[in-house]
Amino acid sequence: xxxxxxxxxxxxxxxxPGKVAELLPLLLPLLLPLxxxxxxxxxxxxxxxxxxxxxxxxxxxxxxxxxxAIKMILHRESLLQxxxxxxxxxxxxxxxxxxxxxxxxxxxxxxxxRSLSSNxxxxxxxxxxxxxFWDGPLGKKRLWLCKLCHLARRPGxxxxxxGNDHISGHLKSKHSLIINSKSHSGSIRLPADQASTPATGxxxxxxxxxxxxxxxxxxxxxxxxxxxxxxxxxxxxxxTFDRPQIQECLLKAPTSLSxxxxxxxxxxxxxxxxxxxxxxSKINLSCDIWTSTNGMSLLGIVAHFIDKDGxxxxxxxxLPRLRGLHTAENIATALATVIQKYQxxxxxGSLMTDNASNNDELYSHLSQSLSVPKKERLRCVGHIINLxxxxxxxxxGVSKLERSLINASDQAKFDLMREKGFVGKIHNIVKYIMRxxxxxxxxxxxxxxxCIEDDLFDQAELLLIKDGGVRWNSxxxxxxxxxxxRKAIDKYLLAWRKPANDSYDxxxxxxxxxxxxxxxQLVKILKPFVSxxxxxxxxxxxxxxxxxxxxxxESITNIxxxxxxxxxxxxxxxxxxxxxxKSGVNMAIEKxxxxxxxxxxxxxxxFAAVILHPSLKRAYFRxxxxxxx
Length: 629
What we know:
By secondary structure, this protein is of the alpha+beta class. The protein has 5 domains: 4-81, no CATH class; 96-108 and 119-194, no CATH class; 209-262, no CATH class; 278-379, Nucleotidyltransferase, domain 5 (2-Layer Sandwich); 380-629, no CATH class. The protein is 46% helix and 13% strand. The strands form 5 sheets. The protein has a 5-stranded mixed beta sheet with strand order 14-13-12-15-16. The protein is elongated, with a radius of gyration of 35 Å. The two termini are 70 Å apart. Residues 1-21, 23-82 and 190-204 have low confidence and may be disordered.
């Protein structure tokens, strides 16, 4: 179809007021406005030559169309009819087989005046496809979009302009059309018996190489498949079973797969950037440092925001490597680099981190390059709960204990943990039994004997659970399992004799009845902390539970609930002599008060979230607190 483009003046509407109704009957055959992606001020107008003189005066504002544009409209009909094909295009789903989904800027190619005045012949392929420009990561490209394939939503509709032979071959093999410049229509349809695919009925869907490659890359990343496994001969044989055309899409070299993943990341970074820049809300960030299996320190940076469609989104922005010490300056440099790469520094909202001391200084370093007010600081509630429970389990000096355990000998580690009361004793017992096959077999025999002696003991098949040092959640599961296997543990310790070649005396870790009562009491105290941690680790945007399981309003309510549990426990231990559990509860209350005060002083968002909750509002604070904070 003939068309002209109006690109030298940002004009959104050119119709006269009140003339829309008169234009509607002629809209489809005469005028079709199509916005170009990323250039909303441009419009592509479509006319039939010979009727322009009748349309312009009554329907359009003459002053809004430059003289050079009117000359283009009134150009020779023969020239206009031989160029381009315009049809409804789904601009958000354009895929190039050798690249993937288009990113960057793209749209209908703008024709300059020199092209319009040229007498060069125009190929008939443009009767069946649109002329598209693309300015993306691979540079500037000219593309041909097959009208028949795109409207039928078939893959492989987008081809690069590099000669016309491959486009002619596409029209012949997929649509039974032979390009013939001598034909009046520019093409001839093959008879059904000569067509490579049926002219009518269901056509065989061609293999979509680009889509398969992207799915292959996503599978490798999401399933944590090693590059060597993903490119092994066994994996390739499985993936290409009965589909030999897939063989060309798979790689044999692990390093090549790494390059594919990096290229996919760069392509998606462009799309993520566009989504971030069009977000309705501020861009809120959360970050934490992780250590990979090969010992590299990585800074995970995740963005949380409301997109242009009003949906809550969480997107990984980057995982830069941290070299050197984890100082506030190093972390701020890596974080600022990622923020500036996405150009979202002007849309920054809150920043959530854990409670490490280097994050307290992070804001002062980050503010040197970005505008980050301190009131936007949020603290990870899961990490706060972790610090509270570690104080409850190990008392004062948890950080010192962690540092001492790192460089201590095996014997010294047993001694250090024993000093932490019944929790340390159970840790030593489990560690001692689980480090040897023979000891595990001896313990299993004690379990079997306990089952015979006591019909109520039915834990013959359970194994002991070893904790992860001072990580409290694994300590909880270790204590809970030890309670279930108490009879077997007592029998094992009663029958244990120090081997001649063993330097450790396990009898030092023997548990009394009072110790077991403390273990049972501690497990009951820790259970709500486990539930709160699991709840705060959830996704607040999961279908069916939106606004809960990790929502900001739950920070205050969970901390308040845990504080009440600790206070009740403190009252129950008030009349007892000093004990390890009593000291731990006092330390936990001191810790929870410390971080609650920090949350209250650093950000009003926690309290605003509670007030905005429809079932809580201000009444929550009136009911829970005697005085307004």
